[in-house]
């Protein structure tokens, strides 16, 4: 059942209208007078509508660069990035992003943070309140609506960041190791929460992590990346029914896939 | 088995960076103030140092109350406070926007920071003769000395505060739909405010220093002038009073900044006292 393909592009692609993100031959080079660093080379991949895709790889493999380019925060040196049929030329509300560092605006309350994007859209007060209430509830922070960031734990801050992105109703949610700084228990409950939200909201999610278990638990498909130069080493189908009700049920298959990925990353 | 030997715990008061009971803390403060007072008292009352050079605490206290009972002295305080605030305000009005620009745009940085870094090392006091040539010895001359003393430091510090704002905070606002101008006014400026407040607090201290520099050299009013005049007549107790009053004024303003900061930015993390 394990699909391991040498070239991800060789895999039969889904129909064009099902593709949300289409990236081909992406390259990124950082150049200074003395050095030339090839952060990404020939990276091609796609993400389907409503899919949960993870980029997995060691630090320095360029996975965050891929995400920042998708967000429009960095420009590619080469190749094309198309999201929802449009070439990415800069950041946009259509591509929400959650960062590893806590990016709550500390001078705003939880509610005002979630409203930030809606206010920029000049949405009416009533509409704003409705959407904000809904997402406060989804991430379970109704009681903290009027708290400031400094009163919240790390997990709560990331919940606000997720709610803030989703409130904008983005086409795609980009997540850059959002749970990387959390303790094990919090991380797990955040993963459960994220999966619930994904199932409910049907948002397309691109998720970055270096944690194999996290990638296998969350995603449908995994792109394993390798460094120097940053590139996609392998595409892995992770939609393997390994879990039931958030519990690992297919331990054998899980171990097999995990071992394979570990060997990929060690090589 | 032997019972574990009871080892004495090391003294709590001298643990590195550890909290101590509040009472002990207050005791430390009282001890420091009392020691200074005691040394001063012994030296002056036992006439170890001639009273002309070191007045007794009693004479200073008497002189202090005599001074603050006179309208003339309040006039000096008033004019000094006026000069400090004008120089400081002028430095803030021009320096803060310039600092924010320099911390936001590389182009502004290139135009502002290297030049400022250079001028910063020219001592403000050395400008006084030049300022007197340009602006005479009127009010504007003193305000200018304070301005020069504060402005260049302020620009550099504000630019640095602005640069320290977490980059991801700006990135996040872009992905939430903010345009450049909105990033500046809705993210950079509010994120900067608490740091700005403490920077201004620091610069206010500098303003007082330069005020006295300006008044010692060329003035016929103000607290610096009273100190100068007292020196001429060897009224050492009045020098003490002048220094004391400047200290008290500085402390009051500093406390005001601290309280305002706490009230205005309840969301700011730590370091707000």
UniProtKB/TrEMBL annotation, chain A:
Q: Which UniProt keywords apply?
A: ATP-binding, Nucleotide-binding, Translocase, Transport
EC no.?
7.6.2.9
Lineage, uppermost ranks = Bacteria, Bacillati, Bacillota, Bacilli, Bacillales
PANTHER family this protein is in?
Answer: ALIPHATIC SULFONATES IMPORT ATP-BINDING PROTEIN SSUB, TAURINE IMPORT ATP-BINDING PROTEIN-RELATED
Q: Where is the ABC transporter domain?
A: 21-252
Give, as one word, the top-level EC class.
translocase
For this UniProt entry, the molecular function terms from Gene Ontology, in alphabetical order, are: ABC-type quaternary ammonium compound transporting activity; ATP binding; ATP hydrolysis activity
Subunit text: The complex is composed of two ATP-binding proteins (OpuCA), two transmembrane proteins (OpuCB and OpuCD) and a solute-binding protein (OpuCC).
Q: CDD domains recorded for this chain?
A: ABC_NrtD_SsuB_transporters
Q: Which domain of life is it from?
A: Bacteria
Q: Does the keyword Heme apply?
A: no
Q: Does the keyword Coiled coil apply?
A: no
Enzymatic reactions: a quaternary ammonium(out) + ATP + H2O = a quaternary ammonium(in) + ADP + phosphate + H(+)
What protein name is recorded for this chain? Carnitine transport ATP-binding protein OpuCA
Task: Output the InterPro entries linked to this UniProt entry.
Answer: AAA+_ATPase, ABC_transporter-like_ATP-bd, ABC_transporter-like_CS, ABC_transporter_ATP-bind, P-loop_NTPase
From TrEMBL, chain B:
> Which residue numbers delimit the ABC transmembrane type-1 domain?
77-257
Q: Where in the cell is it found?
A: Cell membrane
Q: Which Pfam families match?
A: BPD_transp_1 (PF00528)
Q: Which residues cross the membrane?
A: 24-46, 52-69, 81-106, 118-136, 143-159, 205-227, 239-257
Q: Name one GO cellular component term.
A: plasma membrane
The record's section on InterPro entries has: MetI-like, MetI-like_sf
How does the protein's chain sit in the membrane according to the entry?
Multi-pass membrane protein
Tell me a GO biological process for this protein. alkanesulfonate transmembrane transport
Record carries keyword Oxidoreductase: no
Keyword Transmembrane included in the entry's annotation: yes
Q: Which UniProt keywords apply?
A: Cell membrane, Membrane, Transmembrane, Transmembrane helix, Transport
User: What PANTHER family does UniProt report for this protein, alphabetically?
Assistant: ABC TRANSPORTER PERMEASE PROTEIN MJ0413-RELATED (PTHR30151:SF0), ALKANE SULFONATE ABC TRANSPORTER-RELATED, MEMBRANE SUBUNIT (PTHR30151)
- Family designation: Belongs to the binding-protein-dependent transport system permease family.
Its recorded name reads Nitrate transport permease nrtB
Q: Which organism is it from?
A: Anaerobacillus arseniciselenatis
Instruction: Supply the source organism's classification.
Output: Bacteria, Bacillati, Bacillota, Bacilli, Bacillales
